[in-house]
Design goal:
3-stranded antiparallel beta sheet; 5 helices; 3 strands; about 5% strand
Length: about 140
């Protein structure tokens, strides 16, 4: 199974953490359902072009956090996670992305008022695109 993971090897964020965060996202969002098989540590390492140690660490952290489970001799699978953990994971990732965006804007010397205005403009733009997409679907 090919996972929808994209690594940024130039990022200061460790590769194992990128793998871990992206897998949490696809699991919490429901893109990977409970019981779905995951690639072995070796296959994932080969697919991503990283070391086995890196993928092992990501899998160990995910298993410890309750997102995946490993069954000896059978493989690694997406665990059943409760809705509260899903919500916490989604909120945490969204807040992290927003914090990163805000910190980037602050580095460009934007004021908080300017950042807020940019966020609101982007929400309005995305909402408009979403409305257009839904209207086009409804007309068919």
């Amino acid at each position: 199974m090919k996972l929808p993971l994209t690594l940024n090897k130039d990022s200061r964020e460790p590769i194992y953490h990128q793998i871990e965060q992206q897998l949490k996202t696809v699991i919490a969002s429901g893109q990977l359902l409970p019981g779905s098989p995951l690639p072995s540590i070796r296959i994932l390492a080969k697919d991503l072009g990283v070391s086995v140690i890196t993928t092992r660490r990501a899998y160990q952290n995910l298993e410890y956090a309750g997102f995946i489970t490993t069954i000896q001799g059978k493989g690694t699978f997406v665990a059943e996670i409760d809705s509260q953990l899903k919500t916490e994971t989604k909120n945490s990732e969204i807040k992290r992305a927003m914090t990163d965006a805000i910190q980037t804007a602050l580095q460009y010397n934007y004021s908080f008022a300017e950042i807020e205005k940019l966020f609101l403009e982007e929400i309005k733009r995305l909402r408009s695109e979403d409305d257009e997409t839904n209207n086009n679907v409804d007309r068919r």
